[in-house]
Each structure stands twice: as C-alpha cells, then as structure tokens.
Amino acid sequence: MASSQSAKYLSGDASAINDFLDKFDTFLIDCDGVLWSGDHLFEGIPQTIDLLRSRGKRTVFVTNNSTKSRAEYTKKFAAKGISCNEEDVFGSSYSAAVYINRIMKLPAPRNKVFVLGEVGIETELQAENVPFIGGTDPALRRDITDADFAGLADGSLLDPDVGVVLAGLDYHINYLKLATAYQYLRRGAKFLATNTDSTLPSHHAFFPGAGSCLIPLTNMIRQEPLALGKPSQAMMDAVEGKFQLDRSRTCMIGDRLNTDILFGVEGKLGGTLAVLTGVNKKADWEANEAPARPAYYVDGLADLLAVTK
Amino acid sequence: MASSQSAKYLSGDASAINDFLDKFDTFLIDCDGVLWSGDHLFEGIPQTIDLLRSRGKRTVFVTNNSTKSRAEYTKKFAAKGISCNEEDVFGSSYSAAVYINRIMKLPAPRNKVFVLGEVGIETELQAENVPFIGGTDPALRRDITDADFAGLADGSLLDPDVGVVLAGLDYHINYLKLATAYQYLRRGAKFLATNTDSTLPSHHAFFPGAGSCLIPLTNMIRQEPLALGKPSQAMMDAVEGKFQLDRSRTCMIGDRLNTDILFGVEGKLGGTLAVLTGVNKKADWEANEAPARPAYYVDGLADLLAVTK
C-alpha cells in the first residue's frame, strides 16, 4: 500500500482527533453498525453525538434501513438517549419517496407503487402523497394458492395502476409477494430499491438485508433496480439540497465500504471516517479490490471522546 | 447464422421426424414447459410418449423441479394419462440426495442437511438415509422474532450437526428460513442446490424458480452453490450411470437453452431437441450470446405425432 492511500487511525490520539474535527462542519452518520447493532447501543454513543454538537457540528443520520420511517427513527434515537428530531434523519425510504414524487412524477392513473417492504416505506410514501399497495397488507402475508397462480398469470389479480415496484428490507418476504412483484415488473413497472445492502448487521451478527430480499426479482427480470440509498448519488444530491451543506466541509461516517465510504468518496466529500463496529475491517480496504477506502478510521465512534478526557 | 449452426425444424415434416427418431435409442425429456405448464397438460403428449415407446425408445423424465419426489412425479404422470414408473424419473432432488450420500459421504455426526425447499427434497433424502432438518417443518413457517435474531446470532438455535445447506424451490420461503440457512453457511456448511432455474413456468406464465428462492443466500455469502440439476454434468454422470445409456444414441428434449439444451450439448449427447412451449424461443438461440443451440426444434413435442398420420 502506498502511504498516501493509508487511512489515518485516530483512536487514542486526541490531537489527531481535534485536527479531524476541525476540518468539518457537517457529519453524515450511518446508524446500523455505527451507533448500534440491532437493538444494542454501543457504549458512549450519546456522549459522542453530544460532543460533535457541542463543537458546533451538524449531525445528519443517513441510513439505508428502510424498515423505519424518519418519525420511527426519531423515537428509536430518543429511546437510546440520543436527542434528534425528524429533520436530522435521512433514510432510504424517504429518499425513494422523494424520488418517486418529485423526480419521476408518474402521470395518474398509472402512478401507484407496489411495495415489497415494511411500514417505514409506507409512511414515507404517504408523507409524499404517493399511492401504494402491498407492503404490510395482511392479505399478502400468507401462502400462495392455486387461485393466486391463475390470477397472477392472467393478470386478473393485478392492479393496472401500478407503475413502480419499490423494494426494500422485508421481514415478511414470501413467495406470493415475490411472484406478485415479478408480474408487475414483467408488465413494465419501474424497478426501484430503497437500498441494496446484502446483509443487515444485528445482534453482533448479520442477517438478510434489503438487497437479499429483492435480488430474486433482479434475478428473474435480469435487470438491477435503481437504488435510492447509499451509495446512490441521487441520495447525496437530495441530502445536499435539503441541508445546504458544503461538501468539502462534510464527512461521511460509516462501517461499510461499498455503501457508506463509497457514498462519501463518490460524493466528493471532504472526508470519510470508517468505524470497525460493523461490517468491514481494515483488511477489507487494504485489499486490492476494495470498493472504496476511508480517509480516517477509529475502532468505534466513541473513540472520538478521547478529546474530552 | 451459418447454416451448420441452424437448428433443423421438424414440425410438419414426417420424413425428417422419422430420420430424427432413427438416430436415437434414449430420450431424456424435461417436464415443465415440455409436457405441461403447471397443471396444464399440452395436447397430444401421452400419445407422443406412447409413440416413442412403440418405436422401442427408452424415455427418461429428467426434471429440475425439486418440489416433487420421484414417487410423486409418477403419480402426476399417471393422473395425466402418461404411464411411467419411478425408475423412469430422474429429478434434481434425487440427484442431490445421491450426491450427498454417495459422493460427499459426510462423516457423522456433522452430516445433517438443512433443507430450504419442499417435500420432494425431503423424500429423496429419506430414501438415501440422509438426516435433515428444516424443509417443511411447520416450526419454521412463521415470522422471525427477537428471540430468533438472538438465538441465530449466538448460535444457540443452530444444530451443530448441520454440514450442508441444500436449497431448491420453496413455496414457503421466508425471512426466518433464509436467516437460518445463512447462519449455517457462515459457519462452514457446504452450499448445494437442486437447480438454479431463475423462473418456473406455470399457468402459461412464469413464477419464481429455485434459483430465485436461493439467490439471497448466494448474495450474502458471495458464493454460488454446487447445483445438482441440469445443466450440471454431475447429474448427467448419474443419469448415465443409472441407465447405462450410449450418449451418442441419446437425445435431450427441453424448452430451456441454459439448462436442458446446454445439459445435452455439454454432455456430448447425440442430439438435442428444443420445444417452443416453454421459456425459450427461436430468436434466443439465434442470438449471439445464446448459452447453447439445439440441433432440432419443434413447435411442441406432440408435433412428432406427424409420423403416425
């Protein structure tokens, strides 16, 4: 490795952390794997967020997790002792809803969305006044029947107004939903994804992520979805537009090279900080085929607290 | 297209069909998309099978559909008016069970299989005396809970004797099963698939196939399964061994270029016959990137009956 490519290690070095903090006004912060793993909050996180704010930094939580709306995220933050309002959260569900409503602007009546995902997607679509079906509808949470096969095949069970399939993490994925989404895609619906993370860090382990819930559809139609979460620069443009940030004074903090760090590098932000509490480790960005390399790294985000000791 | 690459069209040409039949002693025949689509039997199929047998041909039904065992397939054939015994059927579930039991020969106690799939796989594993869990177990046909997340993450819900994950078409696929299979794979279980067809033809339409049920696992572990169905030559070797056939006098009949026709071409069979009643059409094998090209084709298998008229 050329030393110019090496990420600077900040843990335990208060002076280096102070220099790092001085370079930025805004921190875009990933949640899963950085603040917590599933329901387990990492030690010192609320104090670290307070530190950043006490130094006058803006903190924006940028998450690919589509299962929660911004309002639900705000509640989770409060429960974990991190003060935060809805405007500080930018999720992939919100990003997708904004894209559908303000960029795609589908003409009625073929402007309905079939959702493969959880309530977070539904809430953000509602907030943007986008009509949808599927999602958490209990009518789809069951085994497929012969009548379903027949009605999906001849189209009689399909809503002719569906023009988009929006897929994300779905804890209730099943054959009926996949078969239904596939029929809409075969009939020309646009294929969008909140994000395509293959795994979801939770309980100090990994579980199927949004990308693994929707890849059966990609496999069947042989076409990738347009992803509206990190590292999509459509999301970066939306974040920049909303928060009016100076990219050169903004740092992306995250645990994944192929989403968080790539998002910051491709967005030409002033810096990127990797944490080792989630998916990727140092060896991953030192590998030749690394999708992106961070400028800085710490063992855990709370290591930034060294400047207060 | 060079004429030497062109598939010979047999429909309506009794003389050409007679010449074709004379070249072969054994016909390996795909089922879905050739004999039927889902529960819809194509016209003239029982008579066509009778024709082949009346000419002294051996007919072997070689199917990637893993949801039925050979015994269940035999019942389906009888219900459709096609006489057939269990020994005439060679399915991907049987192929996988034979591979696990006779080729892998896993040492006990780590010789248990976690099944992602239907009863057809279970029946064939039982027939080969391979221990298994998962599959149609009702305990896994439910939503994932917090206790599941915790127990899968720390391994307490996992069976330490599982050494193989065998995946196929699963009409009851869900998040809990995918998360469980993934944990076994992360702990070093071998990844096998009955087949990797992306779609399943049914009701004159297409539905998610085995390959689309298991691709979330491939996506998470970044490794393809060893597939035991067509076009895997492990299956061809098993078919050849069981039926003692002369490959030069054997013809594969199927609707899919990337499974059936490729299976026959790579197996160096004497011939391949494509039918247009399933997935692929003539334009598919005339395309530059065609995965394989048939030697002969008919609109439907029953067109062979022209020699009797």
From TrEMBL, chains A, B:
SUPFAM superfamilies: HAD-like
GO molecular function list: alkaline phosphatase activity; metal ion binding; phosphoglycolate phosphatase activity
Domain of life: Eukaryota
Cellular component per GO, a single term: cytoplasm
Top-level class of the enzyme under EC nomenclature: hydrolase
One Pfam family from the record: Hydrolase_like
Alphabetic keyword roster: Hydrolase, Magnesium, Metal-binding
Residues that bind Mg(2+): 30, 32, 255
Co-factor remark: Divalent metal ions. Mg(2+) is the most effective.
Catalytic reaction list: 4-nitrophenyl phosphate + H2O = 4-nitrophenol + phosphate + H(+)
Cofactor(s) it depends on: Mg(2+)
The EC number(s) this enzyme carries: 3.1.3.41
Alphabetical list of PANTHER family matching this protein: 4-NITROPHENYLPHOSPHATASE-RELATED, HALOACID DEHALOGENASE-LIKE HYDROLASE DOMAIN-CONTAINING PROTEIN 2
Protein name, as recorded: 4-nitrophenylphosphatase
Species for this entry: Coniella lustricola
Lineage: Eukaryota, Fungi, Dikarya, Ascomycota, Pezizomycotina
